[in-house]
Design brief:
The protein has about 500 residues and is an alpha/beta fold. About 35% of the residues lie in helices and about 25% in strands. The strands form 4 sheets. It has a 7-stranded parallel sheet with strand order 8-7-6-9-10-11-12, sandwiched between helices. The chain is elongated.
Amino acid sequence: MKVIVTDEISEKGLELLEKDPRVQLDVRLGLKTSELHGLIGDYDAIITRSGTQVDAELLSHATNLKMVARAGVGIDNVDVVAASERGIIVVNAPFGNTNSAAEHSMAILLSMCRNVPDANASLKSGQWQRAPFTGYELKHKTMGIIGLGKVGGRVALRSRAFEMDVVVYDPYISEKRAADFGTRLVSLDELVSMADVISVHTPLNDETRDLITGEHFSAMKEGVLVVNCARGGIINESAMLTALQSGKVAGAAFDVWSEEPPKSDVLKKMIEHPRMVVTPHLGANTFEAQTNVAIDVSREILNLLDGKPVENAVNIARFDPDLMAQMRPFMELAALLGDFISQLAPENPGKVIFNYTGKLAAHDCMPITVAGLAALLNRCTDQEINMVNASLVAERRGLIVEQSRSTESNFFSNLITMSLETPQGKRTIAGTLFEGTPKIVKMRDFDTDFTPEEHMLVMHYDDRPGLIGKIGTILGEAQVNIGAMNLGRRIKGGEAMVVLSVDSP
């Protein structure tokens, strides 16, 4: 596997790749766009930070690329849709720098509260002043955290250690999750009106861009403190500057900007404001974090090479890492069912339905659905289909994908049923796991019980004496040995089905 590194990445973090004889690692820093376009077609994976734009144009030249590995959390510089269309996995390292980001959030907050930057500059200039730098304590203040993810959760715990009362706005977590961090879940309007300190910890997307506007600043307490160590643009920067200039906001601490490096007049005025503590996107800039994110993406590349689950893909439906080992056999079962039914069903299916019953159905089964869908589509198109682009390809082909779940099951502890609706009729296949081994237990309307093998023969026939013997004779004359046989029928003398596993095609 050939891997290109285009941004500064921790050498220690890349050791996993350097030591693997299967990997050719090329570090090419400072490439011009045209140079990268000319090189990228030779590589299977690219490791970047924020300095390389992995856009649709670059990806159009990446004829062999299988993975974009972003050594960090943000993926603003990666065209995820374009990558998905090409079946390219995009991974990031969402956990490697979370501790560093949380610590930096607290560092610039404390610097702002205690006027550390100004006091430091004053003393270095030869002055001995104390009165101008009187600050604020955090104890008994209300911390409002927007986004209780990996970083936000750590900030919540650290805020609690400073004896702060912590409230949280996050529409994607439960009250129990908030309580686990010693916080209370509130609405955004409630948070901005009650918090003494507001700290933002969400990703930047269409939903969160300009999440905090002038209206929110108007509703805030007089003298509120505002921290942004997440992404530039979540807080409307023009509104932020106005609130600073009016005195509504007593102080702000920003590490991130909507434009980096900042060039606009608004950003320059913010940075120059005397009540702003500013840093140039240093949240992940610790030796530990840089090593951690490099190790994380290196492991993802090796996972891809070894055929193991990719844990931090942003464009693949996936289970939490804690569940992956338990659910991977079901993903493999769904892929097997999809591959099997695609060879039995007529062409041009209009709808595919995945039904999950049993304990399995207590979880979000979408990753299993996508695994089955990818296997199905691989037989229907000459395009390479995987879990990255399966849903996109299905949508473009007009294939409707549905799924249903029920934790109640009469016969099997877990059962996956896959149905194809075509103009010629409906085809159904169902499978389960028996002691970890996949079993197909239903095909069409026939009950079955067989383990899929590499070479199999499925035949329908009239249930008459002697037909099975004739089938065996024909195969024997062709030097085809039968390894196993499974029979199914609805009624005596009616239509029957035989499934044979054979030793050769």
